[in-house]
């Protein structure tokens, strides 16, 4: 059995033409975000997530906003159970 890192390297080696260019862009974008997105911005988004509630909006709107902001709080809601609890509390 391969390690996750070895599996990723193998999958990347299978990419051709536009798919490989897409992958190169993706990894560059991750590096760009890591370098240029400020901690203040990330903290603000995390706070928005923690304070998010459905209010008078629809469940679909709440779910969309929850999913959009949840990426900023991955260190807080790391399990499926924690995600569900936080969603229901909102």
UniProtKB/TrEMBL annotation:
Keywords: Methyltransferase, Transferase. Residues 30-83 form the Retrotransposon gag domain. The keyword Transcription does not apply. Pfam families: Retrotrans_gag. GO terms for molecular function: methyltransferase activity. InterPro entries: Retrotrans_gag_dom (IPR005162). GO terms for biological process: methylation. This is Hexaprenyldihydroxybenzoate methyltransferase, mitochondrial-like protein. It comes from Gossypium australe.
């Amino acid at each position: 059995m391969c390690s996750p890192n070895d599996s990723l390297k193998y999958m990347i080696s299978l990419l051709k033409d536009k798919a490989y260019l897409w992958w190169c862009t993706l990894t560059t974008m991750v590096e760009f975000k890591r370098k240029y997105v400020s901690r203040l911005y990330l903290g603000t988004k995390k706070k928005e997530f923690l304070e998010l509630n459905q209010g008078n909006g629809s469940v679909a709107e709440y779910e969309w906003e929850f999913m959009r902001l949840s990426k900023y709080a991955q260190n807080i809601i790391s399990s499926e159970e924690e995600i569900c609890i936080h969603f229901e509390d909102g």
